[in-house]
Design brief:
With 180 residues, the protein is of the alpha/beta class. The chain has one domain: Rossmann fold. It has 4 helices and 10 strands. A hairpin with a 2-residue loop joins strand 9 and strand 10. Helix 2 crosses helix 3. The radius of gyration is 16 Å and the shape is globular. The mean pLDDT is 85.
């Protein structure tokens, strides 16, 4: 499918240098990447500046749920309505379910701090299991919990974002995959 190589990625507009120790292989095998680390350690920057552009440039269909899901749901409700789907009285879970069900070509799901709004995150994986092959989940917790390791997970890989230094305003972050 695609690969993001290990190496040093300088994000000047974010005053951030990301040192990715291991690359990310999106091979079509079911996998869930759990990204964790302290606030401000570059998790969202990784998604927005490295992962999503790589998905776009490789033509990989994906779904992205950003940090502020509440605002995103208004847009999602409008999008689904333009598709002729009746979602006026749908709650947040139902909106997400309809969106996923009507995105049959998506192979990657990206969720940024989804667990801030939903304590039970496994429901989203149950809905996507038939289509989504790879999930990138940013947790707002500094340490991920076992709730990401359900039977719907496939391979689970924890990815630690760790601040290793600062040069003036530029932060340096090491990103490494923890071996199970």
């Amino acid at each position: 499918m695609m690969r993001i190589d290990g190496g040093t990625y300088t994000l000047s507009d974010r005053n951030l240098v990301l040192d990715i120790e291991d690359g990310f292989e999106l091979s079509g095998q079911r996998c869930r990447y759990i990204l964790f680390g302290a606030n401000g350690s570059g998790k969202t920057s990784f998604l927005e500046k490295i992962l999503i552009p790589a998905l776009d440039s490789n033509g990989v269909d994906f779904l992205y749920i950003g940090q502020d899901i509440r605002n995103q749901l208004y847009t999602l409700r409008a999008l689904l309505a333009t598709m002729g789907l009746s979602v006026i009285n749908a709650d947040e879970r139902e909106l997400l379910r309809v969106w996923i069900a009507n995105s049959p070509t998506a192979r990657v799901l990206v969720m940024d701090e989804f667990d801030k709004f939903f304590s039970d995150v496994d429901f989203i994986f149950q809905w996507t299991n038939a289509v989504i092959q790879t999930c990138f989940v940013v947790t707002h917790h500094d340490q991920p919990t076992s709730r990401f390791d359900s039977e719907n997970a496939g391979r689970v890989c924890r990815v630690r974002f760790e601040l290793t230094g600062q040069d003036g305003e530029v932060k340096r972050v090491r990103i490494r995959q923890e071996k199970p």
